[in-house]
Design goal:
Length: 621
C-alpha cells in the first residue's frame, strides 16, 4: 500500500516537475529564439528579398510605419481582413531585422475618432463600402525623426505582388529624405515657351510638371558639354545632335553608377524642327534620335528609318471632322498583355498610348549585359518607313502596306550589367573603361506629349489634368525605380498570398465548357425548328397565318418537349458540377480532420509499443 502511495506521489511530482520544466523551456525559447522564423509557405511569402533586408539594416535613425485599418467596417470583408494581416505581417518581418529602428503600429480609425481625423489629415483614402456611410481605411503612413512623411493612401489587394517593393521604397525614401537630383536633357519643348505663331506662351507638358514636383530637376541644354555634379539620375528625351563632349560625360556618368532613363524615337511627331516658323522646313526636319555612340558600345540598335506599326493595337482617331474615326496603325494603345507584369515599372499599368515607336533590336547585345522587355508590340505588327508619316500617312494605305509577321517587337527595355566605355580615348586618359550600367530605354517620345495620355480642363481659373492613359505613371515609375539604390531596384514583384483552388477551377471550367456546348446545341436546334416552321408556313397556300396546321402544331410540340429536355440536361450539368466540387471539399475536409490525427495516433501507438517492448526486454534480463 505504501509503495503504491509512493509510486503515485512520485508520478504526481514528476508531472508537476515536467509542467514546470515545460513552462521554463517555453519562456526561454521565447526569449532566446524570438527572432527565429521559418517560412514554410510555397512561394516564400514571408521571406524578405535580400535587397529589402539590406535597406532595413541600413537604417540609422528610427522610422515608424502606421497601418490604418478599419476593423469594424471590414467585418464582412474577409478578403480585405486577410490582406491587412498580410501587410502587417510583412511589416513586422521587416521590423524584426531593423535592430529596433523600425516601429510598426496598427491603428483603427473608428468613425468620429481622432485616429480617423489623423488618417484624413495624412491623405489616406477612405473607401465607401455601404450606403449607410461606412468608410474603409487601409493605408500606411511612414514618418521619420525629421518630419519626413511617406504615405500609401490605399493598399489595393490587386497590387499585392508589389507590396514588398512599395514598403521598401517607402522605407528607403524616409531613410534618404532629401529630394533626389535628376538631370534632364530634352530636344523637345517640354518646358513650354513662347509660341511665335500664336504669340502666346505654350504651357509646359504635364510630364515636365510631374517630374519637377517629385524630384529636384536640373535642366541641361542639349548644347552643353558637361553634366552637373551630384546627379542621381539622368533623363534624356529625344537626344538629337548632342556634342561629343556631352556624350562622353553621359557615358562616364552611366559607367560610374548613374541611372539613365532615355526616350528615343525614329520619328518624333512633337519635334518642331530647327525653324518652326517655316512649315515646309518643319515638315522636312530630321525627327529621329538615338543614344548615339552608347548604342554601339552596348550592342543595342534601332532602325531610325522605320517605325513599328501595329494593327492589333491600332487606336481609333478622327482625321476629318464629321467623319467616323478610323484605326491608325501608327497610333498604338498597349494593353497589360504587352507590358511586363512582373516589373515594378510596368506591372501596375493598364494602358500606354504611343505613336510611331521604334523597334529595339537585342540580337547583338554586348556580352555582360542583360535586358528585360518592359513594353512590346502585339504579334499583329510590322515595320514601315518613317517617310510615310511625313505627309500625314493615310491609315488605310498604311494598313494595306504593312506586312504582319507574327512577331512581338521590343519598344521599351530595362538594361543592366557590365559594359565597356564607348570612348576608349577617355578611358585611356584616366576615365572609366567599363562599369555596371542601369538604364531604361523607351523607343518613343510621343508618349510624353499631353495628347497621348492626359486631358487639360480649365475649372474656375485652374487647370485640371485628367489622365486617360498611364504614360505619366510609366515615366515617374521608371525614374523612381532607377533612383533607388541597387537594393531597391533588386526588389522584384512577389507571388501573392491568394491561393486559388486549382482543382475546383478546373472542374468549373470543364463544366462551363459542357454548358456552353449544350447551350450551343440548344440554339442550333432552336434555329432549325424556327426554320422548319418557316418552311411549313411558306408551303401553305392559304393566307390565314394565324391558324396552325396539324403539322405545325406537332413541330411546335416537339420543340417544346425538346427544349424542356435540354433545360433538364443543363440543370443536370450544373448539379454534377456542384456535386463534384462538394465531393472535392469533403475529401479535403476528411484529409485535414482525419488524416493528421490518425497519423499522430499511429505514431503514439508505435512509441507505446516500442516502450512496452523495451520494458519487457529489461524485465526479462
Amino acid at each position: 500500500m505504501n509503495s503504491l502511495i509512493r509510486k503515485n506521489l512520485y508520478t504526481g511530482t514528476g508531472l508537476i516537475l515536467l509542467a514546470v520544466l515545460f513552462i521554463i523551456a517555453t519562456m526561454l525559447s521565447t526569449a532566446l529564439f524570438k527572432n527565429w522564423r521559418i517560412d514554410l509557405t510555397e512561394n516564400r511569402l514571408f521571406t524578405l528579398s535580400e535587397g529589402t533586408v539590406n535597406i532595413v539594416r541600413s537604417l540609422e535613425e528610427p522610422v515608424t510605419f502606421r497601418l490604418y485599418f478599419s476593423e469594424a467596417a471590414s467585418e464582412d470583408l474577409p478578403q480585405i481582413r486577410r490582406y491587412a494581416n498580410r501587410v502587417e505581417e510583412l511589416m513586422l518581418e521587416m521590423a524584426a531585422k531593423s535592430d529596433g529602428l523600425l516601429d510598426i503600429q496598427r491603428i483603427d480609425p473608428a468613425p468620429f475618432s481622432e485616429a480617423e481625423d489623423d488618417a484624413a489629415r495624412y491623405g489616406l483614402e477612405g473607401v465607401p463600402i455601404s450606403q449607410a456611410g461606412d468608410v474603409l481605411y487601409l493605408g500606411i503612413v511612414g514618418t521619420n525623426t525629421i518630419d519626413g512623411l511617406e504615405t500609401i493612401p490605399f493598399l489595393s489587394p490587386q497590387r499585392e505582388a508589389f507590396l514588398e517593393y512599395d514598403l521598401a521604397s517607402m522605407l528607403h525614401n524616409l531613410a534618404q529624405p532629401d529630394l533626389p537630383s535628376v538631370g534632364l536633357i530634352s530636344g523637345l519643348p517640354i518646358s513650354g515657351g513662347f509660341n511665335m505663331q500664336t504669340g502666346q506662351q505654350n504651357p509646359s507638358w504635364a510630364i515636365f510638371d510631374q517630374l519637377n514636383e517629385l524630384f529636384a530637376v536640373s535642366t541641361i541644354a542639349p548644347a552643353d558639354t558637361a553634366l552637373p555634379e551630384g546627379l542621381d539620375a539622368l533623363v534624356l528625351i529625344h537626344p538629337k545632335n548632342l556634342p561629343e563632349e556631352l556624350w562622353q560625360a553621359i557615358d562616364q556618368f552611366v559607367l560610374g553608377g548613374g541611372r539613365l532613363l532615355a526616350f528615343i524615337d525614329p520619328y518624333a511627331e512633337a519635334d518642331p524642327g530647327d525653324n518652326p516658323m517655316d512649315p515646309a522646313s518643319a515638315m522636312m526636319a530630321e525627327r529621329s534620335s538615338s543614344l548615339g555612340p552608347l548604342m554601339a558600345a552596348w550592342g543595342l540598335s534601332m532602325d531610325n528609318e522605320r517605325f513599328v506599326a501595329d494593327i492589333g493595337r491600332a487606336l481609333q482617331v478622327n482625321l476629318t471632322p464629321g467623319q467616323p474615326p478610323v484605326r491608325h496603325p501608327a497610333i498604338i494603345g498597349l494593353t497589360p498583355n504587352d507590358l511586363d507584369g512582373e516589373d515594378i515599372i510596368t506591372g501596375d499599368l493598364e494602358a500606354i498610348n504611343i505613336a510611331s515607336p521604334g523597334h529595339l533590336a537585342l540580337d547583338s547585345l554586348a556580352e555582360g549585359l542583360d535586358s528585360i522587355v518592359l513594353m512590346q508590340s502585339s504579334p499583329n505588327s510590322g515595320m514601315l518607313p518613317t517617310e510615310r508619316l511625313r505627309f500625314g500617312g493615310n491609315p488605310t494605305e498604311l494598313i494595306d502596306e504593312l506586312g504582319v509577321d507574327d512577331t512581338r517587337r521590343p519598344i521599351a527595355i530595362r538594361l543592366n550589367g557590365q559594359a565597356a566605355s564607348a570612348f576608349p580615348e577617355v578611358a585611356s586618359a584616366g576615365g572609366l573603361s567599363e562599369g555596371t550600367i542601369n538604364a531604361v530605354i523607351v523607343a518613343d517620345t510621343d508618349l510624353l506629349t499631353d495628347r497621348m495620355w492626359v486631358q487639360r480642363q480649365n475649372f474656375l481659373g485652374s487647370v485640371l489634368l485628367t489622365p486617360f492613359a498611364d504614360n505619366g505613371a510609366l515615366a515617374v515609375n521608371a525614374v523612381e525605380n532607377l533612383l533607388g539604390n541597387a537594393d531597391l531596384i533588386s526588389v522584384r514583384s512577389r507571388a501573392t498570398s491568394n491561393r486559388p483552388f486549382e482543382l475546383v477551377d478546373d472542374l468549373r471550367r470543364e463544366a462551363e465548357s459542357d454548358l456552353r456546348s449544350t447551350e450551343q446545341r440548344l440554339e442550333l436546334e432552336l434555329q432549325e425548328t424556327e426554320a422548319r416552321l418557316t418552311e411549313l408556313q411558306q408551303a401553305r397556300g392559304d393566307t390565314d397565318l394565324s391558324i396552325l396546321t396539324p403539322e405545325q402544331e406537332a413541330e411546335i410540340d416537339r420543340f417544346v418537349d425538346q427544349r424542356l429536355e435540354i433545360r433538364r440536361q443543363l440543370r443536370q450539368v450544373r448539379r454534377e458540377l456542384d456535386q463534384d466540387i462538394e465531393a472535392l471539399g469533403t475529401r479535403i475536409k476528411l484529409l485535414n480532420i482525419v488524416t493528421v490525427p490518425l497519423l499522430i495516433t499511429v505514431l503514439a501507438l508505435f512509441v507505446a509499443w516500442r516502450r512496452r517492448r523495451s520494458q519487457r526486454a529489461g524485465g526479462a534480463a
